[in-house]
Amino acid sequence: MAVDPVASENSESHRLSLKDSDFNDASVAEMVLPCNSLNETLDFFVGRLGFDLVSISPADDPTRAVLWGYGLRIRLERDASGTPGSLCLYLKDAEAVVGSDRKFLAPNGTKIEIVEQAEEGRRLFPAPSFSLCRHADNSLWREGRAGMRYRDLIPERQGGRLIASHIQILEGGPVADYAHFHNIEFQMIYCYKGWVRVVYEDQGPSFVMEEGDCVLQPPQIRHQVLECAPGLEVVEITCPAEHETYTAGD
Fold it and tell me: What does the buried/exposed string (b/e) look like for 146-168 if buried means 16 or more CB atoms within 10 Å of the residue's CB?
């Protein structure tokens, strides 16, 4: 069978070469997962979880297979050292991809957890309940990000609806914060003690929040804490309780 060395841009061979070049021309990272049975583990990741096979070698007795899926590059390696590890896959339509199961154990021992991403605007929470947290309880303070101390004011989180944090910065001056944003639906910041200088995306120059000031923080707005008074204390209320904080770069 003859093969045309100049393939059409729309041909399947051209699309395959583009996939290869994605890995050959760029710096990438991959996770190495050891396995005893390469074929069995490969069939699971491709057939059950929907990963794509990128390469396999050597051809006569394969010991390595590189997979790609969900933004992750994996190398299955027969008899490699190390632990099988665990993966968490975030899927928008988990039922269509993996069925009703949400936890799997791969043939090589890798634990896989499936997290179904909620549809836009769909959040189901239980009815709110009364919660009390006493100010005198100092045992609840924890070290958070950027040198801030956090105290959880609603430990039960109202079934995931809210998180209320009492935040404290003991030392005044510049704050080791970075430009960031939160994947949230609602957030309120109340300045309880001291003052803090903050800057928000598209809101002009930085400004100072003083005792009694309150800011309603729009979802995903970029912002940064610049400096504060010694002993600053703020209360932050956010929905949902569990959410991601992303760095915003420059």
Answer: eebebbbbbeebbeebbbbbbbb
C-alpha 222/C-alpha 181 separation (Å) is: 5
How confident is the model over 189-232, as pLDDT tens digits?
999 999 999 999 999 999 999 999 999 999 999 999 999 999 99
**Of the candidates 235, 224, 134, the residue with the CA atom closest to the CA atom of residue 191:** 235
- Range(s) within the chain of domains with CATH label 2.60.120.10: 139-247
Every domain of the chain with CATH number 3.10.180.10 lies at 12-116
pTM score: 0.57
- Architecture category of domain 139-247 in CATH: Sandwich (2.60)
**CA-CA distance, 63 to 45, in Å (whole number)?**
16
Kindly calculate the radius of gyration of the chain based on its CA atoms and give it in whole angstroms: 25
pLDDT digits (tens, 9 = 90+) for 96-149: 777 888 889 999 999 999 877 655 555 556 677 777 776 666 667 888 777 788
Pairing of strands 52-57, 86-91: unpaired
Q: Catalogue the long-range contacts made by 170-176 (C-beta closer than 8 Å, 24 or more residues apart).
A: 170/230, 170/231, 171/147, 171/230, 172/227, 172/228, 172/229, 172/230, 172/231, 172/232, 173/227, 173/228, 173/230, 174/226, 174/227, 175/146, 175/147, 175/225, 175/226, 175/227, 175/228, 176/146, 176/147
**Which CATH entry fits the domain spanning 12-116: 3.30.300.30, 3.30.700.20, 3.10.180.10, 3.40.720.10?**
3.10.180.10
DSSP 198: E
Report which secondary-structure segment, H or E, holds 104: strand 103-105
